[in-house]
UniProtKB/TrEMBL annotation, chains A, B, C:
InterPro entries: RutC-like_sf (IPR035959), YjgF/YER057c/UK114 (IPR006175). This is RidA family protein. Pfam families: Ribonuc_L-PSP. SUPFAM superfamilies: YjgF-like. It comes from the Bacteria.
């Protein structure tokens, strides 16, 4: 018997294809790649929180957290965070924002891999996460 | 005692290096990055199913499925699908094909991350998957 | 109660942001993206093992292994290895080095995905790994 469940926070738009924003099965929770889209507004095209790295990074992290929390997890449970940036010049600033965001994190920070890829026009960052719950 | 086993579907060529097309240990099954190569023909260089996104995407998904099934799993068990495309202009068409392919999927669709990377010449898509079995 | 622990080999520099070089929770161990930096020297900026693919690949693999071992695991436990290269022309040489490195590996080799991305200037390869312990 499978207990695999889709996780769809109320703030999130319907995914643009047949995938879930997050999935949990047993104590494993996988968050799909999140970008800096603002909370969904019915009838409107998803829009990023802004053109800059700071607002997109903070919104992306908020979107990952929404999925974690909807699935019964939190940052403390996250094992791996994958950060996709479009520009190596953004590394230092992203790290600053990342460190501010996680300043109060309790327990061991997640592992992380950061690579530089292409993303849809206007998007500067995408993040996904793997969590293992207690 | 480890029960980690390599998964090598009969349709697949020997990997070009010391890695496995899939690995299962306990209830975790990881599928290596698959591309749109047609089933292996002894003595012939692996060839993609065609030059276009549609045939490569369908063949890639078929190759992922072969590994899942050889390992005793199916799409229903997949938690995460990573899609690597070479061109952001392919996103909409890939989603169409993806949705057709998964139209009959039962249960929660897997989470997914799509990023745009470089791939060997002629290849337009690569996909890997993480499954958690019951 | 969480048993999630950070893994920081003595050879490794402090990560440049609030993440861990590795994390273990229960039988899951995630190694963060490693690059070809030589063992840390206090007060010095991290430096790659050399400008070439061979020395960077071997050092990167050594760095992944350090994290695995510090976390109580080894290559035999690794399910998935993600290889990020900057140049498709490096695929064949990387595979040669990879095969030499894993020549004595016992048990099923890990699954692997190789994609071509951007990395910080001077770095040719990055590798992360997911292990499932017995």
């Amino acid at each position: 018997m499978s207990d695999k469940t889709a996780i769809t926070p109320a703030t999130h738009t319907q995914p643009p294809a047949k995938f879930s924003h997050g999935v949990r099965k047993g104590n494993i929770l996988q968050v799909a790649g999140q970008v800096g889209f603002l909370p969904a507004v019915p009838g409107r095209t998803p829009a990023p929180a802004g053109p800059g790295l700071r607002e997109q990074t903070l919104q992306t992290l908020a979107n990952v957290r929404s999925v974690l929390e909807e699935g019964g997890a939190g940052w403390e449970d996250v094992m791996m965070i994958r950060v996709y940036l479009t520009d190596t010049a953004h590394f230092a600033e992203m790290n600053e924002i990342y460190n501010e965001y996680f300043a109060d994190l309790k327990g061991a920070p997640a592992a992380r891999t950061t690579v530089y890829v292409g993303l849809p026009a206007g998007l500067l960052i995408e993040i996904d996460a793997l969590a293992v719950l207690d």
